[in-house]
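Lab manual, section 2.4: Encoding a predicted structure.

Procedure: take the sequence of the chain (250 residues), apply the prediction step described in section 2.3, and record the output as structure tokens. A sample record is shown.
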Amino acid sequence: MLAARRRTGYVMIALGVFLGVLGFFVTFIFALRATARTGDIPMQPVVVAATDIPERTVIQPNQVRVVDLPVDRVPPTAVASPSEVVGKFTLGRLYAGQLVVREGLADTGGSSGLAFAIPPGRVLVTVNFASAANTVASGAIRPGDRVDIIVYTDGANGKQAAATFRNLEVFSVGGRTTNLSGPAVQTQSPQPATILQFVVTPQEALELKFLEGLGADLVLRSAADTSTPPLQVVDMDYMAAKYGLERPRR
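Recorded output:
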């Protein structure tokens, strides 16, 4: 009886060992097949940012690296070699791991400056809106924010307020833009906190300078709102009709 139990125990142990070995080989074979399938996928070297790279930056060798991606995931304008990237000027911010694409770079010969970040047909204009000085100086407006510009002036019915530019992106506030970097970079001199800069068409630059002379004001838009529904000019007739204000005696 005891011998029979021992034989049964040995059989169970042997069976367990056999099943364990079988499981190992099955797993190994599946792993080999998966590896073979992965190896069959065509790969392509691409350049990615090795670290966050600010916009308007001359790219340095240690800021990029090469990784392999499946060919079907590589956009046509991706860059394959660091030699095509190093020394180029970034037009927008690159985040670590982000693909570097040709349309995001400018060949400036290793130089950098705001002029290389301005698209053709655009200019950089600097304004100082007197009525917006407190809002701007408070730090509420930051580069990349969008604003509506309001003018308050005399009209046929007395004073009037009207919106002019709508959803206009702020390029710089008081000289604060994204930091420039690189060996040939010239840093900006600090400007008064009420100074604003916009990148606009030459005609729009003239219009903004005209509004500056009128002491224009601005309002900060929600980051989630880009709509520009029509706004009615507000004057004494409007305020009297809506709020019942008495007209001034003449």
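Check your result against the sample. Residues 43-115 form a domain with the Type Iii Antifreeze Protein Isoform Hplc 12 fold (CATH 3.90.1210.10).
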